[in-house]
Amino acid sequence: MKKARTKSPRDYNERFERGMAVLRRMGREKLMMNQEALYPDMYEMSVGHLFGDVWGRPGLSLRDRQLVTLAANIALCRPTGNHSHYLSALHLGITEQEICEVMIQVGHYAGWPTLSNAVRQFTEIMEEQKKMKKLGKRYRSRLL
After folding, report:
1. Helix axes 62-75, 112-134, angle to 10 degrees
2. Which among 43, 41, 94 is positioned nearest to 66, based on CA atoms?
């Protein structure tokens, strides 16, 4: 039987730094700070594993990973998680039209109520972004 390899503190720090680099590229580094204050252990797992190990893998660009994640979250009809992913998508250069196409594609497989929910969420974000832009501020979802 193969012995399980334990992660050294160096491995952990490398994973965490990779995760932070991914978050910076996605424009989400500051959004994650809420999670750090409320749930420090979950924050460390999210940054090190989810963003360092999963999002940081080769094979798909961050843009492609964001599209896949948006599609999965839309299909699962998540009430809050989509907000940060919509913002990250826009930050990564995914257009409003491309996001709408993802919603239409998913809506035909996941159901019309799911599509309606996604459209409502995205519309709220875009309206709030327009208001904030007029005020010269960057939008930050109230749900994060």
Report:
1. 120
2. 94
